[in-house]
Every structure is written in structure tokens, then in C-alpha cells.
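Predict the holo structure. Ligand: 2'-deoxycytidine-5'-monophosphate.
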Amino acid sequence: MKHFNIAIDGPAGAGKSTIARRAAGQLGFVYVDTGAMYRAMALYFLRKGINPADEEAVSRTCSEAEVSIRYQDGAQQVLLNGEDVSGQIRTEEVGKTASVVSAYMPVREKLTELQKELAARENVIMDGRDIGTCVLPQAPAKIYLTASVEVRALRRFRELTEKGEACDLEEIKKDIANRDWKDMHREHAPLKQAEDAVVVDSSQMTIDQVVEAILAVAKEKGLKIAGDCEAAGAACEEADSGASDAVRSEDSEA
Ligand code: DC
């Protein structure tokens, strides 16, 4: 059976997870956060004490790390060798390590295969860096979701400040720009806009506006949405409750 897949790519902190999760809730699609899979692999190397810069060691040991995902009450959980590590992967250290090890081909091949399998089984909204270009090049709807470095840094700064964590806006900006550069300039599957992707810049948009824009792209590309909100029930109510939220950088560290 052929499924309708929606690919969302873009830099860290553009709000991909928040948006993709809500859009998936409204459509009754499965949301697949591929960044979480790279983070789980990164966690494995950190735990093993393997230097992420050591490509040979990472490539040699990556077959030992079994990453899988499962869904509980609609939320994605990431398992590393059977252990739920969904909470532990949301740290700066894991994020930075994921950015390094995701540049290596054996790591990418392993996770790309898993992602393709998931998309072949279900209607998915999958977010990442290479979904529209490498993982699901045939996806009918592709979105490149971005926002300026300044806006992404400010969102992150606010989130950390709200949590009472000390942080420096200029440092955050530098980190974001660095992560962008690494993700965009690696040799394998770099972050880039697919030729047929629609660009959505969330800098001045609310979450609802971005979700609307994504649903509009999906409809334009042939997705039939039966009765829009009525069809999605509770998921839709949950999405509606955040009507005036600004987009958050939540796809980065919690
Ligand atoms: O989206 P995120 O910040 O959780 O992703 C963590 C890292 O994983 C990111 O720096 C790049 C990498 N990544 C990737 O290379 N390809 C993907 N499809 C998703 C994430």
C-alpha cells in the first residue's frame, strides 16, 4: 500500500519538531523525529567513551548500537539497545555529538534504512536534515522550514531563561551558526533544500500559522483531508490550544 509522506527539513531550532508533531496530530499521521535517532547513536558513543571525532572507531562500533522507535500514547520514544533514552538525548552534549557522528556514512546508512522502513509502513511526517533529499526523495510534500539565526537564538535564550538556566545570547548564536555550518557542509547528505521543497520561514510566524502552511502544502500536493479538524479529534483540540504560541526552538535540547 502506498502512503502519503511529508518531509520536513531545516536547521536546528527552526521549530520542526513542534510543527511536525502538531501537523501529524491534526492529520492522524505518525510523527518521526529523525534527529532523535542520531542523538540516540551519539549517546551510545558517549557512554562507551568513544571520541566522536574518531571516525574509524565510531564506524566500527556503530553496528553495536540498535536504535528503534516506538509510540506510547502517540508520542515517539527512542530506544537504544532496548532502553528508552528519550529523556537522556536532550542535552547540549548529545546534540553536539550527534552533529559530529551524523557526518559519518555508516551511521547515516543505518538510520536512513530504518527511516525508509517506517515511511513505507505508515503515513508519516518525518523531520530532519536530509529527508526530502535522501531519505524520502519521492515524498509528495516537502517543506524546508527555516528561521533566521537571530530568531532561533532568541527562542532558545528565552526557553533556557524560563527554565532558570544561565545563558548568553551571543554564545547561543555562535553555537547555532556553528551547528548550521556543520550540518550544511558535511560530505554525506548535507542539510539543503530539496529542489521541489516549499520554503517556510517561521521567523515571524506563530505555530498555528506554520502548521497551516504545511497542511496547505500537503493539500496542494494531493493529500485529501477529510473534514479537517473533526477527523483528527483530540489531537486537533490539543493543537488548537496553542493558538497564539510563538514557534519554539524545542527540537533542540530540553
Ligand atoms: O534535529 P536535532 O537537533 O535533534 O538533530 C541532531 C543532529 O542530528 C543534527 O545536528 C544533525 C543530525 N541529523 C542528521 O544529520 N540528519 C537528520 N535527518 C536528522 C538529524
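The mean pLDDT is 89. Residues 105-121 form the longest helix (17 residues).
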